[in-house]
Amino acid sequence: MPTDSAHRDLAERLSGVESRNVTFLRPPPPFWTDAEGATVRDAAGNTYLDFTGAFGVALAGHRHPLVAERIAAQAGRLIHGMGDIHPPAVKVEFLEALAVLMPWPDTRAILGLSGSDAVEAALKTAQLATGRHGIIAFEGSYHGLTLGALATTHREHFRRPFTDRLARHVHFVRFPSSADAAEDVLAEIDALLSGDAGVPVGAVLVEPIQGRAGVRIPPPEFLAQLVEKARAAGALFIADEIFTGMGRTGEFLACDHDRVVPDLVCLGKALGGGMPLSACCGPRGVMDAWPASSGEAVHTSTFQGHPLGCAAGLGFLAALEAEGLVGRARRLGAFAADYLTAKLAGREEVREVRGRGLMLGVELRGPGTARMGPAAAVAKGALDRGLIVLPAGARGDVVELTPPATISEGKLEAGLEVLVSAITTGATR
Questions:
Q1: What is the pLDDT of residues 330-340, one digit of tens each?
Q2: In what order do the strands lie in the sheet with 390-392?
Q3: What does the DSSP assignment read for 384-415?
Q4: Angle at 351 between CA 380 and CA 174, to 5 degrees
Q5: In this predicted structure, what is the pLDDT of residue 426?
Q6: How far apart are CA 60 and CA 266, in angstroms?
Q7: For the packed helices 307-322 and 89-101, what is the interaxial angle rounded to 10 degrees?
Q8: CA-CA 20 to 30 A from 148: which of 37, 122, 293, 415?
Q9: How far apart are CA 215 and CA 113, in angstroms?
Q10: pTM of the model as a whole
Q11: CA proximity to 210, closest of 274, 152, 139
Q12: CA-wise closest residue to 149 among 212, 98, 196
């Protein structure tokens, strides 16, 4: 799809009011105007099939009726409350609904507005609960860009400008791709937990599947062994399920694939059904490391537990159950993986098709960087054909797919056909 004058105009206007670091405007991208289900429309009137779920947020699809209805009803009553002073009643309703779905019998949570918020809350919780400030994280990790979360995010592109301000007690270990590699990684973690970290370790933070690093899945039993080692050493196991949680991988939590119950879980993205909403959740025995409020909270914010966000979260949880989204993600993901594996078999440019549920990656061969690798060329070719996908991986060599679980099988297959064409021919329509 050629760049439209409407997009050029909007790009020029945006560049006049937004920091130049934020939005990549060369060439001008599509500017979205409306979306529904798995379909997006831009300012030029073009329509696209969205296989990103808008960074994984739209697991229930764009503008799901149950989410939109809850937001509209709440907006007609109360748009903003006073979080930790005069809390909105809908916050109680949402937290109760979320607690029922968590793996602990007595769940407590801290709400936020972003995945970074959830990670910050989890790291603070771990320090309060253990009295230790050492952290083990993983190469390839992405946990957010606020300073605490950024210290545990591995990618140098994000870290370099702020290195001097980052905490220096985070130790990165390899994210294993095989059982043999896992043995070496676990041995290194053992050593860090035993004192090689230099400071006592209170938290082991991991994405059960690394998303931005290219849909990297650890070998079987690795997470279970990691939990065992962390707990034996008195550290907490924090699962960053911001991308993977809420059914994206075909289980409610990605940790469920490995029969692992974390000490803390970070949720976000899909949780708000499109509204900014996140949560750090844990069992009462861990979360009660926070002191009871004395009238002044230790960790809070103006928009914490925002009424519209909580209402949207309730709408998403209703959609999750009503449409069986966890099961749909499992079934549609298996269909997509089988389709891509069959259609791309024997292709020299394709290294691997992998994933769980509707979190899939097609790893390509070829040199590159995170911004300009072979997956970026495929993403452009797909966009020209009306399909939105994103590149991922440190070398930009993975095409990442996280479509809505509400997508029909027909639309899913149509989008996969476009993707295969973009990978195998490189031609625009």
A1: 999 999 999 99
A2: 350-356, 359-364, 398-401, 390-392
A3: HTTEE-EEESTTS-EEEE---TT--HHHHHHH
A4: 100
A5: 64
A6: 19
A7: 40
A8: 293
A9: 24
A10: 0.97
A11: 139
A12: 212
pLDDT at 366: 86
Task: Please give the share of the chain, as a percent, with pLDDT higher than 90.
Answer: 95
User: How many residues does the structure list for the chain?
Assistant: 429
Which SS3 state, helix, strand or coil, does residue 88 take? Answer: coil
Count the alpha carbons within 13 Å of 261 in the hemisphere toward its beta carbon: 8
Residue 178: C-alpha distances to residues 154, 193, 226 (Å): 20, 22, 15
Query: What ranges make up the beta strands (E) of 161-261?
Result: 170-173, 201-206, 236-240
Structure tokens at 178: 């095989």
pLDDT of residue 3: 61
| CA 332, 333, 336, 342 torsion-angle sign | negative
Q: Tokens representing 149? A: 């979360």
Chain segment 36-68, per-residue pLDDT in tens: 999 999 999 999 999 999 999 999 999 999 999
CA dist 293 → 84, 107, 124, 285, 402 (Å)? 9, 18, 16, 17, 39
Q: What is the largest CA-CA distance in the chain?
A: 64
* Amino acid at the residue 194: S
Structure tokens, 410:
């027909």
Cα dihedral across residues 327, 330, 336, 342: positive or negative: negative
* Beta-strand runs (E) in 139-283: 170-173, 201-206, 236-240, 264-267, 278-283
Q: List CB contacts of 410: < 8 A, sequence separation 6 or more.
A: none
Cβ atoms 116, 145 nearer than 8 A? yes
